[in-house]
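Problem 12. The chain below contains 175 residues. Write out its predicted structure in token notation.
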Amino acid sequence: MPVLDVEIDALAGGSAHLTQYRGRAVLIVNVASRCGLTPQYAGLQALADRYSDRGLTVLGVPCNQFHGQEPGTAGEIAEFCSTTYGVTFPLTEKVEVNGSHRHPLYRRLVDTPDDDGYTGDIRWNFEKFLVAPDGTVAARFGPEVEPESADLVAAVEKALPPDAGSPGQGGGAAR
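Solution.
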């Protein structure tokens, strides 16, 4: 099953309808509010702002599997992201990304190698997967890779759909 055909709920409830992102590049990131890497939310929002009008969607996927660093309820997560980092990109329900209860979305992602050839379990919060407009996984980036790093930005620019228009403003879809 292609990545964008996987069913997952939105943070606020109801389906996140990943099929709506077909034809767009999608950066899928497992996120957490109480992690040393949490400031990456600012870089993720900057990417969403910079590339949304050109065909990128940043998709945050809350996960509490790494030392309980995302303990909040859906409402608490939404409030934190909005008020602390001005997040406007979509967030999904909180899921497990590793283990026997790994969400089907991550079952489709974890076999993708990063630049060092690593495949398998998600190593920590803020691991990133870039999905091309055709639904294939184009790249994987480790948690320590900053959202605005040259390598990640270059991969995003390469993955953008060719007919998405020129750069503009916009923060992505609402939760």
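Discussion. Residues 166-175 have pLDDT under 50 and may be disordered. Students who got a different answer should revisit the alignment rule from Section 12.3.
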